[in-house]
Specification:
The complex is a heterodimer of chains A (about 375) and B (about 280). Chain A folds into two domains: about 55-195, Cytochrome Bc1 Complex, Chain D, domain 2 (Orthogonal Bundle), CATH 1.10.760; about 200-350, Cytochrome Bc1 Complex, Chain D, domain 2 (Orthogonal Bundle), CATH 1.10.760.10. Chain A is mainly alpha-helical and about 375 residues long. Chain A contains 14 helices and two strands. The longest helix of chain A has 15 residues, at about 1-15. The radius of gyration of chain A is 22 Å and the shape is globular. Helix content of chain A is about 35%, strand content about 0%. Chain B has about 280 residues and is of the alpha+beta class. Chain B folds into two domains: about 5-35; about 40-275. Chain B has helices at about 5-30, 245-250, 255-270, and strands at about 40-50, 55, 65, 70-85, 90-95, 100-105, 115, 120, 125-130, 165-170, 180-185, 190, 200-205, 210, 220, 225-235, 270-275. In chain B, the strands form three sheets. In chain B, strands 3, 4, 5, 6, 9, 10, 11, 14 and 15 form a nine-stranded antiparallel sheet that branches. In chain B, strands 1, 2, 7, 8, 16 and 17 form a six-stranded mixed sheet that branches. In chain B, a hairpin with a 4-residue loop joins strand 4 (about 70-85) and strand 5 (about 90-95). In chain B, about 35% of the residues are buried. The chains are: A mainly alpha (about 375), B alpha+beta (about 280). Chains A and B meet through helix 1 of A and helix 1, strand 10 and strand 11 of B.
């Protein structure tokens, strides 16, 4: 009741003060996320950046607008989509494990997808050093391996494209273009990128049955005596297929990457630890691991099966290290693969709302 | 002047109004007669982990268990549920008004203190008991959708629900290699012919157990808040009444009912102790 009252008063205040020369009243439409079956009910949406239909529309345009890096020459256009491509679950896809920014510098690590990030508890990136999507956007703008630009350049470019100030007006109440608002709008769009329509989701909801091979793979995935992937990558009780936790999964015995989890926490035991990525749409996001060392999913299964490397930093959940790996037979490998492929989400890859808008602002289409 | 500025001004004034009204309500509510709160106290539990009489140290191979295994502990995560306060007159109060299953995680400080919501009737109590893990009726899959509790899920094929505990560490095995152990307790399985294959499961075993906290009698006055320590003595998981040898049971036990049975019997015996909370040390 109180909230309703406040809303009425505020709306009254807004309409009564509407000045004829101001473009439009600020009445953004709230955007609600339906929690898919079995998914966490707690969403990570910052209090100062509520999701609105107008904010998302603006964020989507910016995400797909090559001028977002503050350059307008056709050869130097770059935006998020340059690396995060929907058809690859928002990764760049093989054959370039480390994407290159505008100026040809390559990123430290291989790509991460953008999938169900509204459930990331606030440690983004392979090492969790970034605390929000908003912060990530600001990082991308100045990173030499990404936009290699500056907030001023970006703001200047965007505010001079006709159409954008109106979109900012609708999303944030005034036409001012600020880097903070750019980051907020893009973050709103990224939070809409939800995958919840894999074969496994439909199996969980009781809408579809898995094949015997897929079910055998599921058993392997979720049993300790099998392949024991679930402690880090989820399963029926955690359909995100990631804990969003950080682990050393036994790839090396010497650790030289200055950007591992240890570089963030300073805890010795985090040496060589990275985020256990979601396995949703993993088919589309090779090459694999933070350094892109494995070309194919077969390589990854082979690694977990026979090629684990022990070190004092290996996570205790990697108990199969005692045998050098999970020691799957060829049949089991193919069952496990069949299960992993039930995590493919074609709806996500094909959702037109996640793709580029029909038209970008200004008369300079990209 | 921008519209959003106006909006925030309205919000500002309204907030003040609401707060003022609220204060008015609160002050006018204070009546001199007996309210239930005045006959009750509050309880806070602090969950701690000790090993060999001192606070548990993590990731250091400084411990030797009863079987002679040198070992380290990385983290412990567990559920305590259905806490009961047994009154001297024979009755008991179940703490379940807001939270009946409490999660403790050695990496998450806020889980280590449980400010119980339930008002506790003033008087004398003989003892406190709780369920280690979660009872069969309550241990249902998908009841915790959010982390950290969510990440305790126990696979459907192995009985579903949630792990009672994950105690992860490493030990120096008899072949000289440092190996991880995952001392995970939860619902056990019975395998036809003893072959560990999910296809041959013929039944499940509910391994949760009731713990009676030793020397846990206490008295509580109206309006008083009592703070208690519930201490896990980690080495006792591996020694009384059964000597638990990592070289025998290996790194994983979720599918080894015999190992989980030993663990649970040890857990019931003397893993937990109790006392007044004396602050962090």
């Amino acid at each position: 009741m109180a909230v309703f009252l406040m809303t009425v008063v505020v709306m009254y205040g807004l309409s009564s003060c509407h000045d004829p020369e101001e473009p439009e009243p600020y009445e953004p439409t709230p955007y609600y996320i339906d929690i898919p079956y079995g998914f966490p009910t707690e969403l990570n949406i910052p209090e100062d950046n509520p999701m609105t239909v107008e904010g998302i529309a603006l964020g989507r345009a910016l995400f797909y607008d090559g001028r977002l890096n503050g350059r307008t020459h056709p050869d130097s256009l770059m935006s998020c989509y340059s690396c995060h491509r929907q058809e690859n679950s928002f990764e760049i896809g093989a054959p370039r494990p480390h994407p290159f920014g505008v100026t040809g510098h390559s990123t430290h690590h291989a790509m991460l997808p953008m999938i169900n990030l509204v459930w990331n508890p606030g440690h983004f990136g392979w090492n969790g050093s970034v605390s929000s999507i908003e912060e990530d956007v600001l990082g991308v703008i100045s990173d030499p391996a990404e936009f290699d630009s500056s907030p001023e350049k970006v703001v200047n470019t965007i505010k001079n494209i006709s159409g954008y100030p109106e979109m900012f007006q609708k999303a944030f109440g005034t036409p001012d273009v600020t880097v903070d608002r750019i980051a907020k709008a893009i973050a709103q769009f990224v939070r809409t990128l939800i995958s919840s329509d894999t074969r496994f989701d439909r199996y969980m909801r009781g809408e579809e049955q898995l094949t015997p091979e897929e079910l055998r793979g599921f058993v392997l995935f979720t049993t300790e005596e099998g392949a024991d992937c679930f402690h880090c990558h989820g399963g029926y009780g955690n359909p995100l297929f990631t804990t969003n936790g950080f682990y050393n999964n036994g790839k090396d015995s010497v650790f030289t990457d200055p950007y591992d989890r240890f570089s963030v926490t300073g805890n010795e035991m985090d040496k060589g630890a990275y985020k256990a990525t979601t396995l949703r749409n993993i088919e589309f996001t090779g090459p694999y691991m933070h350094d892109g060392r494995f070309e194919t999913l077969d390589d990854v299964i082979e690694f977990y099966s026979h090629d684990l490397v022990n070190s004092p930093y290996i996570d205790p959940l990697m108990h199969h290290i005692a045998d050098g790996g999970i020691q799957l037979t060829p049949q089991e490998k193919s069952d496990l693969m069949a299960f992993i492929k039930t995590l493919r989400d074609e709806t996500f890859i094909g959702n037109p709302d996640f793709g580029p808008p029909e038209k970008l602002p200004g008369n300079n289409p990209e | 002047m921008s519209n959003s500025f106006i909006a925030s001004r309205y919000f500002g004034n309204l907030t003040i109004l609401f707060v003022a009204t609220g204060l008015l309500f609160f002050s006018s509510c204070k009546k001199p007669e007996d309210t239930p709160e005045e006959k009750t106290g509050k309880i806070v539990f602090h969950f701690t982990q000790y090993n060999e009489g001192a606070p548990q140290r993590y990731d250091t191979m400084k411990y030797v268990n009863a079987a002679g295994n040198h070992y380290l502990v990385s983290e412990i995560q567990y559920f305590v549920s259905d806490v009961k306060l047994h009154r001297a007159d024979g009755g008991a109060q179940l703490l379940d008004q807001w939270e009946d299953i409490h999660y403790v995680d050695t990496d998450l400080e806020d889980t280590q203190e449980w400010k119980v919501y339930d008002p506790v009737e003033a008087g004398d109590y003989d003892k406190i008991t709780f369920t280690f893990g979660i009872c069969e009726e309550k241990n249902q899959s998908l009841m915790f959708l959010n982390p950290p509790e969510r990440d305790m899920f126990w696979p459907e094929y192995l009985g579903g629900g949630y792990h009672y505990m994950k105690l992860n560490g490493k030990w120096l095995s008899s072949d000289g290699m440092v190996k991880p152990f995952n001392f995970h307790l939860g619902i056990g399985q019975i395998y036809a012919g003893g072959v560990i294959d999910p296809d041959s499961i013929t039944g499940f075993v509910q391994n949760y157990f009731e713990v009676e906290l030793p020397a846990s009698s206490f008295g509580i006055n109206a309006g008083e808040t009592k703070e208690f320590e519930v201490r896990m003595n980690v080495e006792n998981w591996f020694q009384h009444p059964h000597v638990y040898d990592h070289d025998v049971w290996g790194g994983d036990i979720m599918q080894k009912q015999d190992a989980m049975k030993l663990g649970c019997e040890n857990g019931k015996e003397d893993v937990f102790s109790f006392g007044e909370w004396k602050g962090d040390n």
